[in-house]
Amino acid sequence: MINNGNDIGFIHDIAGLDKLRQQAVNGDEGDDKAALTAAAKQFEAIFTTMLFKSMREANTTFESDLMNSQNQQFYRQMLDEQMASELSSSGSLGLADMIVAQLSSGSIENQNAKAGDENFEQLMEKVDRARLARANRVEAEEVLPTQASPSQPSRFDSPESFVTSMKPYAEKAANALGIDSSLLLAQAALETGWGQKMVANSRTSSNNLFNIKADKSWSGERVATQTLEYHQGVPVQEKAAFRAYQDYEQSFNDYVRFLNENPRYTMALRHGGDPEQFIRGIHQAGYATDPQYADKVLRVKAKIDQM
Question: In the CATH scheme, what architecture does the domain 159-305 have?
């Protein structure tokens, strides 16, 4: 049975929406309506959060640097998301009711499971578009710097120092994707050996924390080097070109954009609330050729969680 309570949970829990869709398809008419209502409330919360963000941005011109620190921005964002969840749960805005009414308008003539599935697929597409728009806003705002931060470390003394340095960027990217930041940190740690084996050439480092390759669609800087790929489970050394960034923050932001713009990762992104399903999802979709990739990332995540 669907939970009919007012708690809509974390507003970016795409995995939760996918579970609601499955329950609605397999449940009875009451389940279908309750699941549709719960999903509509989550969509309303995402939409409301985007409105709050736009209003915050409109006021930034009038704020001084002394009153606009990164910590203040972070806590404002948490407050806005909590307010959006509470407004949606209470039904004060009425957007969720309008969505339910619109998607349920044709259900009298066709009350079978297929109709319920179609209604949910329409809503899930809207949620995906909202998530993509939100991620693109992050990428547009934060991937633009043309110079590396002078405070960016080039070496890391320990796994702990790597995690400490990368955590602010990981949290922003994880928030955009609706996943656990420690999973992103684990992925970056695995890909770069805790920052010790960053893709680089004789002139510069790529600052590429996720080893995203520079395919034909990439118009930015690139660094070519030897890489280990697996073909039918057999490791092979190959030369490949990788994307290069001005700093680590750009690398995290491009990772968000890369996943959102590639349709093959859509299902994995819907499981962002479940770290294991998410990492196994992008692995199965072709993110990495190492057959043990997902297991390795999860082991590193467990280590980070204990720090």
Answer: Orthogonal Bundle (1.10)
